[in-house]
Design goal:
alpha+beta; Jelly Rolls; 6 helices; 13 strands; 29% helix; globular
């Protein structure tokens, strides 16, 4: 039923497969949309080595997502990742693990994205945030690839509730937050991503200055016969955001235009990242 697991040495696939009869109905029944979080996801030693290998934002290759709707940093160039993390991500992208995700989510034909578009390593300093949103629906460079599933692995040892930074899952009509998942060490979250699976961590994190909110984010797709409807990241205001909602909407339109440029001209995030990073540096006292 599943591909052989012998090639996976860092991801405990045998244990995950044993848990599938319990995990699958839990995933399907979750509200506000199918999701699950799993603690002690990797073996302790593997998670700890990944955390220790996590590079600082100042290291080469980081993309600076610094605009109205988010303040975080990403590294998605496979060749720039630390070797240990690169090996771990490659196991998450192996057919046998992707088959497990298909069984867990009930979505057949999932495919990994080796280009890590929008994913890879994410990191937020104190004051970082990500407004509530539904993700882009189509891979910007593969028109028939529909985005279906997110996997996020948190690597934050000693993270306290008062630091904030919980992943919030919102009702599809944006009426309320249904679930808050703290980004604690070695916790994995898997959830369906579609046109209205709203999530984010919209309040600035309040961790100490010498800490960051770290995660590995991987996205999985299905290849559709006809090109699916294409929509960029859909940021949404929360009830009570007031005038801030207008800024969220205007910024969302700018992001949509940029996403169209990426798809139409095959550009990547490097140039805009350098510009945003320059502005971010200039704003610092």
């Amino acid at each position: 039923m599943y591909p052989a697991a012998e090639t996976l040495t860092m991801v405990p696939l045998d244990r995950l497969l044993e848990q599938l009869p319990r995990l699958r109905p839990q995933y399907a029944a979750a509200s506000p949309y199918p999701h699950i979080h799993m603690d002690r996801f990797l073996e302790e030693e593997v998670a700890r080595k990944a955390m220790e290998a996590f590079p600082a934002v100042q290291d080469a290759g980081w993309i600076h997502y610094v605009h109205v709707n988010e303040r975080k940093h990403g590294l998605n160039k496979m060749e720039l990742l630390p070797p240990y993390i690169r090996a771990l991500i490659r196991e998450f992208n192996q057919p046998e693990f992707v088959a497990f995700l298909s069984e867990l989510t009930g979505i057949p034909g999932l495919m990994a994205d080796d280009s890590l578009e929008g994913g890879g390593l994410h990191q937020s300093r104190r004051g970082g945030y990500l407004n509530v949103h539904a993700d882009f629906t189509v891979h910007p460079h593969r028109r028939h690839w529909r985005r279906r599933v997110n996997l996020i692995l948190y690597l934050n040892e000693g993270w306290k509730d008062e630091y904030g930074g919980a992943l919030e899952l919102w009702e599809r009509d944006m009426s309320r937050c249904t679930s808050r998942i703290m980004p604690v060490f070695n916790r994995a979250v898997v959830f369906n991503t579609d046109e209205d699976s709203y999530h984010g961590f919209p309040d600035p994190v309040e961790c100490p200055e010498d800490m960051t909110r770290k995660s590995i984010a991987l996205y999985y797709f299905t290849e559709e016969t006809a090109p699916p409807p294409m929509r960029s990241t859909n940021y949404r205001a929360r009830p009570g955001d007031g005038l801030k909602g207008l800024l969220i909407w205007l910024d969302k339109k700018a992001v949509a235009f940029y996403t169209w440029l990426k798809s139409a001209f095959g550009i990547n995030d490097d140039f805009v990242s350098r510009v945003l990073g320059w502005f971010s540096t200039k704003k610092k006292p």
